[in-house]
């Protein structure tokens, strides 16, 4: 009975949520403890079946099942660090250097000059959505959170609104609009033309982020959360920059470089990977080779951090004074975030090894529900159970790809869009993105569960409603 993936999921949820909120455990301890219990309860047969479903050989699957619990958790922990460790460290340096140099304050003043204070959150919402098309969600959040802190200090309010606007725009673009990995896998698995997915994802994404904006405004009025003191961004430091004379701040072009450098590199690399073949273009085309090399997300963030430190160096009259301290405090705060996020990744990986995705697929295989909401709810179940939006999209598309072109009364693009929207439900402690948002914005776990989690859930549901209406009015596009 206890070996059923659904029972194991519930036990894991109780340990994490109860431990953090009820037992006041540090999130790292609660997540590692939950991962240990989940791994201990998972039978070897489930691990083998999971590994085989991922395309591993029978030998590799048996080897994984025979690996000790500690080694499996450590491997998953290390895998998550490998994915996000350098990104978070470099993002912390970028944020700290932009705040210390006044670059964030210069950008904020420029935004206010264009939009006015009243429309600043809309600028953050639309900006994060467009940035989220070529750039990963976490990268967009890393780059924009220092701007949100500087803007909140200048406005003296609406910090939560700005944070939610960033997450709303970047999260929806990340799941709906290629060339991010989830949508790219969808269009390949379900034979959806990339141009059609881009247009459809953009339109649905626009509707969802509008709904997300209204929710963010409402929750910000009902339960405003102030900008808090943090090691990487002391309030006194931000306030001092907010009161500086404009002539003491770096120019807008220099201020934007820590954001534009990684953005342009990642976008250029994504364009090359999508539409070109560097080998076919010829090794003599050194520009394409370099762009692909530096456009890898880790390299791009390193270049962004170098640009941010150079901005700080120039702003301090070419003095190293303060740079060592800036890097030290950034890495100290970033290290804590890396540990918690990696623990969340390990917990999610142990849940995946229970076979929860396969269990959900079995439960829904004979469900005679309309295909569009079925696609949505299968994806939502997998996302809530194991934490990864991309894994949820891959799982759901694998289940439904065979139905995508057989006897449908509507274009199968709608199935793909429904899967993308379903991957937004429900982010909680087994999602590494939850911890990134929670810790980098200095929200408590309760605050994140009351604001960030409902925000993505509401946008996903609005997306489903939009898709079903569009499929009814324009079934074959």
TrEMBL record:
Subcellular location: Cell membrane
Keyword Hydrolase: no
UniProtKB keywords: Cell membrane, Membrane, Transmembrane, Transmembrane helix, Transport
Residues annotated as transmembrane: 5-22, 28-52, 73-94, 122-147, 159-177, 197-219, 259-278, 298-314, 326-351, 371-400, 449-471
CC terms in the record's Gene Ontology section: plasma membrane
Chief place where the protein resides: membrane
Pfam families listed in its UniProt record: GntP_permease
Single GO MF annotation: gluconate transmembrane transporter activity
Topology within the bilayer: Multi-pass membrane protein
Origin: domain of life: Bacteria
Family: Belongs to the GntP permease family.
PANTHER family membership: GNT FAMILY GLUCONATE TRANSPORTER, HIGH-AFFINITY GLUCONATE TRANSPORTER
Name of the protein: Gluconate permease gntP
Organism field: Cyclobacterium amurskyense
């Amino acid at each position: 009975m206890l070996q059923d993936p659904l029972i194991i999921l519930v036990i894991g949820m109780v340990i994490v949520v109860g431990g953090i909120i009820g037992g006041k455990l540090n999130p790292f301890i609660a997540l590692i403890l939950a991962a240990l219990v989940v791994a201990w309860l998972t039978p070897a047969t489930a691990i083998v079946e999971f590994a085989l479903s991922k395309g591993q050989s029978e030998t590799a699957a048996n080897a994984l099942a025979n690996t000790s619990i500690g080694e499996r958790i450590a491997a998953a922990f290390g895998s998550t660090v490998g994915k996000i460790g350098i990104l978070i460290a470099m993002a912390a340096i970028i944020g700290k250097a932009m705040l210390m140099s006044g670059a964030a304050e210069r950008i904020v003043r420029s935004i206010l000059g264009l939009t006015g204070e009243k429309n600043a959150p809309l600028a953050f919402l639309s900006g994060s959505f467009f940035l989220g098309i070529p750039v990963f969600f976490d990268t967009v959040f890393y780059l924009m959170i220092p701007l949100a802190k500087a803007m909140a200090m200048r406005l003296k309010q609406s910090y939560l609104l700005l944070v939610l606007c960033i997450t709303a725009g970047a999260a929806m673009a990340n799941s709906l609009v290629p060339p991010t990995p989830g949508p790219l896998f969808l269009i390949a698995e379900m034979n959806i033309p990339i141009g059609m997915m881009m247009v459809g994802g953009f339109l649905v994404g626009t509707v969802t982020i509008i709904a997300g904006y209204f929710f963010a405004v409402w929750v910000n009025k009902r339960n405003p959360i102030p900008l808090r003191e943090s090691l990487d961004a002391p309030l006194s430091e931000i306030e001092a920059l907010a009161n500086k004379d404009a002539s003491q701040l770096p120019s807008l072009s220099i201020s934007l470089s820590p954001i534009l450098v990684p953005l342009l590199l990642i976008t250029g690399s994504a364009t090359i990977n999508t539409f070109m073949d560097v080998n076919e273009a010829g090794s003599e085309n050194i520009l394409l080779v370099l762009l692909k090399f530096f456009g890898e997300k880790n390299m791009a963030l390193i270049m962004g951090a170098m640009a941010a430190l150079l901005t700080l160096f120039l702003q301090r009259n070419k003095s190293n004074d303060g740079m060592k301290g800036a890097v030290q405090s950034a890495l100290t705060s970033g290290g804590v975030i890396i540990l918690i996020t990696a623990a969340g990744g390990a917990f999610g990986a142990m849940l995946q090894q229970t076979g929860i995705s396969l269990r959900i697929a079995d439960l829904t295989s004979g469900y005679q529900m309309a295909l569009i909401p079925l696609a949505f709810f299968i994806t939502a179940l997998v996302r809530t159970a194991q934490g990864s939006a991309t894994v949820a999209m891959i799982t759901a598309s694998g289940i439904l790809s065979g139905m995508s072109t057989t006897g449908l009364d509507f274009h199968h693009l709608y199935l793909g869009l429904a899967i993308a929207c379903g991957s937004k439900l429900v982010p909680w402690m087994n999602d590494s993105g939850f911890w990134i948002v929670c810790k980098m914005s200095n929200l408590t776990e309760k605050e994140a569960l009351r604001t960030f989690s409902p925000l993505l859930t509401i946008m996903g549901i609005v997306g489903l409603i939009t898709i079903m209406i569009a499929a009814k009015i324009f079934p074959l596009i």
